[in-house]
Every structure is written in C-alpha cells, then in structure tokens.
Amino acid sequence: MKTFPSLTGPALTALGISLMAISCDNKSEEADPANPEVVLETSSGTIVLELDPENAPLTTENFLTYVNDGFYDGTIFHRVIDDFMIQGGGFELIDGSGTEKETRDPVKNEAKNGLKNTRGTISMARTNNPDSATSQFFINLVDNPGLDPKTPENPKAFSPDGYTVFGKVTKGMDVVDKIRGVDTGKRRLKARGPGGDLREAPMQDVPFQNVLIEKATASQSR
Q1: Per-residue pLDDT tens for 172-197?
Q2: 163: buried, middle or exposed (CB in 10 Å: 19+, 13-18, 0-12)?
Q3: What is the CATH number of the domain that holds 182?
Q4: In a domain, 30, yes or no
C-alpha cells in the first residue's frame, strides 16, 4: 500500500499540516444552474454535488463518466477522518467487505485552477504522482489549505501540485457531518497492488459500520 501524501493510501494519520476547523451551519450553497450536479444516495442520507466543468473540465468529465457508468453504485466511504475529510469512490462492498475496484486511466491534475480545498468542496484523491487520480474522491470537512498547491501565499502546503477541487456540496452537509461521526479504526480491506492483483491488508480510519453509496446519479442542474 502507498504511504502519505497519497490520499488513496493508508497513512493519512501521519498528515503534517495544520487543519482549521470552522463552524457548521448545514445551509445549502447557491447552485449555478449551468453546472451539472450529482446526487449521491447514501445509507446515511442524500448528498448533492455541484460540479465545476469550467475550472476543472478534465476532472469533471472523468467523474461524470464514472457516475454514468454506475461505477459508484455499491461503493463505500472507506476512510473517514474527523476534522479532515471523508473519502470514497474506490471500494465496492462484496460479502460485507471492501474490495478495491478496477478503474479507468488516471486524469491529469487540475489543482492549479484557483479552487480551494475549503469545507464542503469535493476533490480528487491521488498518490504521490499528481496525475494519478482515477475514481476516488474526498469531501473536505474543514478548510484544508495544506491540500492546495504550494505557492508563496500558501508556503505550508504539503504538495507543490495540490489536490484538484472540482465541485462542492450544495445540499446534504448534515449528511456529510453524520458520516464524519462514525466510529473508525483499523480494518482489513482488499486493495489492488501495482499489477492490479488484490491483496488484503489492514487500513486505518475505516468505518466499522459500512457507509454505502447506494446510487450516484448525474443531471444538469436546474
């Protein structure tokens, strides 16, 4: 398994950046009617995402392809870290256990698009390679400037390339906060090695009770 700063690896607890928690009011964000939206029907409730094809065209197209292919249906949020993020989109539930799915080719990093990893935004998980994002995504629980590209204005960022923000939650932050409160710990999941073979290995910050994405549906926003 890969090590941090991979947001697809098991060692996020070693994160060396400061996280700034902000208050939660659970109010809906204003949606742009020109942007597509994705509805995630989860076992904890419904989350509505507005995507940003103008600032993250490649990432938005990649995400919508997975949605329209039904890839996310039956997957779990496999990593939850309070005061950081919830991550999903990579492991399907088979016989009660998480098994990493095969994915499409990776998408080019678009993190330098001006969008910030603030509370309620959705970003792509990746390995140390900035152009390695495939299907896994995360929703920021707090403002995470350390995940933005390193610049003179943001010198403490973890990576010069950053993690691509491509949308935001417009409804259902109360559901996201419900998911953040689940009990987590070390749990064995079946992850894919470099050759694509499945290997069962313990991973940190995995919910003990499965949080399922039952269905993901894309539509043009109103």
Answers
A1: 999 999 999 999 999 999 999 888 89
A2: buried
A3: 2.40.100.10
A4: no
Q: How many domains does the chain have?
A: 1
Across residues 139-162, what is the average pLDDT? 97
Is residue 17 included in any domain, yes or no? no
Domain with 109, as residue range(s), is: 35-220
Closest Cα partner for 118 from 82, 80, 83, 144? 144
Q: If DSSP states are collapsed to H, E and C, what string results for 177-201?
A: HHHHCCCEEEEEEEEECCCCCEEEE
